[in-house]
Amino acid sequence: MAKNERIKSEEVFREDYERISKKNKAKPEYFKNAVMAFLVGGTICTLGQLIKNIIIGWGTPEQDAALITTIVLVFLGSSLTAFGIYDMIGRHAGAGSIVPITGFANSIVSCAVDFKTEGPVFGLGAKMFTIAGPVIVYATVSSWIFGLIYYLWGVIF
Amino acid sequence: MAKRLKGRTYILEGDVSIEQTASVVGPFEGEGPLGKYFDVVNEDDLMDEKSYESAESGMLKNSIELLMKKASVNEEETDVIIGGDLLNQITATTFAVRDFAIPYWGIYNACATYTLGLQIASLGIDSGAFKKAIVTASSHFSTSERQYRSPLELGTQNPATSQRTVTGAGSCLVASGGGGPYINDFTIGSVTDLGQCDPYNMGSAMAPAAVKTLIEHFANTKTDLKDYDLVLTGDLANEGLNIAKELLEEYGYPGENITDCGKLIYDDSVQYVNNGGSGAGCCANVFNGFIYKLMKEKRINTLLFVATGALLSTTSSQQSNSIPCIAHAVTITNERRKYNV
Fold it and tell me: What is d(CA B169, CA B306) in angstroms, rounded to the nearest whole number?
């Protein structure tokens, strides 16, 4: 286009923009992110296994040991969130620190900490489940669906 | 009185100068490459307040007080405060200005608020109604994060295209006469929406708005990118700036004398910011703290300042709407400039 000309066609401008923006889009570092997620996620899971083995070693039945392990991990995730460390881990670890149960604890505690200023009822109480709420809702719904499939499978075959 | 030059570009008749500026930022911005240029660098994000929202208001109030002290003007002499921020109902600004006995115009154009304020103030002054007006804009990383994105302590990874909202409040005193730098002319932008829906990629969404306003401005004033010592866009960040540059080049305005506030304020090699900075306080502080000083030292004599804003809300983006964007351009010069059009 010649100099000092205006944008004549909105359509052409849009096409030019789409082409150029696609080319310039900042790309995430997939490989680095995957490696970090693997390492951190693996570390959290290994830690969980370690805790469980220790508790079993003390003579606790396996089912109870699994429950206690969960409680310990949730406690660790919550504490690290409260001290402002978990988000720094998450920044580098991505899914590695969101997927384990410590990430679930983080999603609840981070909301609680954030909305504390809006009061104990409509702030902390109500907003606590902003992120964890949908997870609970859809986990419950999918358990109904899979329960139904499981039941029907048993009836038919 | 200001006159319409052509299209949506207006030229001021009298001399309207930016007499003084003040910049107040947070600790993270202080650690950035422009840290030493800001007037005040707060040591703590919360700034001894109970909430981040109060901290933002306090920071804005500080910047106005500092400005009035630096320019030695009192409340009586100041005709109006024009400003805004990114919070719902622009509460950060309103709460900050309630302690001043100065009339107030609250404005909102997201991150383009600052140049919008400069345009309104210069019109008011050039009309003869005002003698002195304060233009202010602020944003705070923690308040924006809470309002637009996710809780602060949530351990998620932001996309590579995302930008970090600048913690900072910038105010300037626009006055009639004075010794410059002068607001010479300006172009009012119109809302541009090319269908980009990703709120984590606002630099890209805003780039076409900046380009449209720039092309309109260049065409109306018969100038070129090279006729300015610097073209300064507001928070397009790295990716958006590259898109804007390439688009401008395709439309006949190539040049390297264009940079972006969101790119300047952080050092992305050492600071975790993904694509760069954003927020109403970003361009306000980069201009007030850094560029204004360069203009005073005559190292930059003609500046085209184009702040860009993404006019989305959390509701609009959750309802899958695209992001309407805007860009307002202001020419700031050390010597008044006339155009032959």
Answer: 18
